[in-house]
Amino acid sequence: MPSRKFADGEVVMGRWPGSVLYYEVQVTSYDDVAHLYTVKYKDGTELALKESDIRSQSSFKHRKSQSSSSSPSRRNSSRSRSRSRSPGRPAKGRRRSASQSREHKDDKKKTIQETSLALVVLVLFKPSENNTKRYNGEPESTEKNDTSCIILEQKLKPDLEVKRVLEQYSLRSRKDDKKTEEIFSEKKTFVAVKPIEKVPSKTKELEFGGRIGTFMLILLLPATVLYLLLMCKQDDPSLLNFPPLPALESLWEWRVFGIFLLWFFLQAVFYLLPIGKVVEGLPLSSGRKLQYRINGFYAFILTAAAIGVLLYFEFELHYLYDHFMQFAVSAAAFSLALSVYLYVRSLKAPEEELAPGGNSGYLIYDFFTGHELNPRIGSFDLKYFCELRPGLIGWVVINLAMLLAEMRIHNLSVPSLAMILVNSFQLLYVVDALWNEEAVLTTMDITHDGFGFMLAFGDLVWVPFVYSLQAFYLVGHPTTITWPVAAAITVLNCVGYYIFRSANSQKNNFRRNPADPKLANLKFIPTATGKGLLVTGWWGFVRHPNYLGDIIMALAWSLPCGFNHILPYFYVIYFICLLVHREARDEHHCKQKYGLAWERYCQRVPYRIFPYIY
User: Fold this and answer.
1) Residue 601: partners with Cβ closer than 8 Å, 6 or more residues away
2) How far is 579 from 562, CA to CA, in rounded Å?
3) Is 560 exposed, middle or buried (0-12, 13-18, 19+ CB in 10 A)?
4) Membrane-spanning residues where (predicted)?
């Protein structure tokens, strides 16, 4: 194993990824496995650099002094010759020989080339103050509404200035000018390259309570689902009325498990259909972009058609309600088996394909959070497929089954108004997610979290069986609401949906194309990573306006169930806790990623989710 060259705490010069600029950094740690140094820039940004991208300060200064000292002496000697006689005319009474003339021209050409080289070195190793601030997330003004093209033009301005000076005073031939243009074009290419994020190293800061916390969550999450479903089955679903535990044999039925497998693989077939556009995700740590097929809405239409055919042939969809507990257990067993498969296959995954937050080296923790970032079987992306398809579409099917079960059990010709509201609100939410499927590619689940038990259980069990809790509750505990109350709840849901959708649209459009003319009115704070932090629109109101809209909608989904029991409000209580915890994770990651720029953003937008409260 090669020994490290730089010690922790040592101040060195580190190259900014994707450019030729070196900045003063401090070594904070060293990864013996990946052979990468974690360094910290003055603005607080932390990156992982290879040893070849780091130089000691002494060698760096020595090289700079060499390049700057050689050039002026040659320029002085050239000027002294110019004052004595014309460069193109020999001295009186003496004719210059052909060899002397050639030597003089070669010397002159060399002098001009070294002069231009010195200017280039000055640009590379002594950038202007504004350039340095821009790379460190310290813009000339705190807020900008410039496009990324304008920022790039400002970065290239010193190069254009050097080129103009050289063309004005240079005596080179056109062939040499072409070579110079190639040099500058190559330099521009280096500057224009976007910084590549660091290759994932060992996870040092453990979330969710570390190894003990994740182990407890693996046990508590299935137990919570079982508890909630048993409570809904009781006549009195109060918290103090603990339900009796069912017999183990009543929780499992192979036929139910077979139906669940059929559902899962049917959605996989819909995912593989060559319909819908193919888009690229955000760059990975290696700079590569994965491709994703956007056809979730088409899968929803095909599923609706299949359900319609089953109802036409009088298939009893309320079978889902009668065996709801067994379906939940089947989904939990499948998600556990899937999680084991994901962890085993991740042990052979390359280092650059591991998740930033699930590479701790602890089995239980990595099993829970997900060891591999984007596990794929060929072009089939397992995490992306489970994120929206089986669970989210299954949620709508479960709600429909609950609606039909309510009509059958209570002998109703039409569903109750409360059941219609719950089904309508949640159907809108699912259709919106599938219609804007491409937006999920910028979320933390896809870009940061690995695919392990947390997401597998959440996508396949928690979403369809806990998010449908209101509809399941209304089947056994019907609630009557008036039309004015229904109208007020509908308005509340629409307000939450408008905030949620407009905020997400602003964020996703800006991330995809900051130079879009439609976004010219949006102001942002530039960062050292090349991305901008929005400080206008919804994102200038609170830091997570999409979370605010989500919570308002969650409340509207629970209100039709009345106020007799707190059980239907479990979803909104849980959702507030979930989003507050996720917001804290976002804050931690953004502070590490954006450094000083994030601190300025927090000063500009002080409220996190709830304006004037939190």
Assistant:
1) 525, 533, 535, 543, 594
2) 24
3) buried
4) 212-231, 251-273, 294-313, 325-344, 455-475, 481-500, 521-542, 562-581
Task: In whole angstroms, give the CA distance from residue 113 to residue 409.
Answer: 91
Rounded Cα distance between 415 and 423, Å, is 10
Burial of residue 223 (CB within 10 Å: 0-12, 13-18, 19+) is: exposed
* Burial per residue of 108-146, b for 16 or more beta-carbon CB atoms within 10 angstroms, e otherwise: beeebebbbebbbbbbbbebeeebeebbbbbbeeeebeb
Distance CA 47, CA 595 (A): 11
Average of per-residue pLDDT values in the chain: 77
What are the tokens at 582?
A: 């996720």
Q: Give the Cα separation of 384 and 379 in Å (integer).
A: 11
Render pLDDT for 314-346 as a digit per residue (tens, 0 to 9).
888 888 999 999 999 999 999 999 999 999 999
**pLDDT tens, residue by residue, 524-574:** 887 776 677 877 778 888 888 888 999 999 999 999 999 888 999 998 998
How far is 194 from 191, CA to CA, in rounded Å?
8
Note the residue count of the chain: 614
Q: Which residues contact 157 (CB under 8 A, 6 or more apart)?
A: none
What is the model's pTM? 0.66
Domains and CATH numbers, the chain: 10-57 (2.30.30.140), 208-477 (no CATH), 481-613 (no CATH)
Residue 411 has, within 13 A of its CA and on its CB side, a CA count of: 0
What tokens were used for 140?
């000339």
Angle, alpha carbons 326-332-333 (nearest 5°): 90
The two tokens of residue 286 are 């290696």
Q: What is the spatial distance between Cα 307 and Cα 315, in angstroms, rounded to a whole number?
A: 9
Is residue 82 within 8 A of residue 38, CB to CB? The reply is: no
Q: Sign of the C-alpha dihedral, residues 225, 227, 230, 235?
A: negative
CB burial string 176-205: b at 16+ within 10 A, e below: eeeebeeebeebeeebeeebebbbbbebee
- Which residues sit opposite 24 in a β-bridge? 13
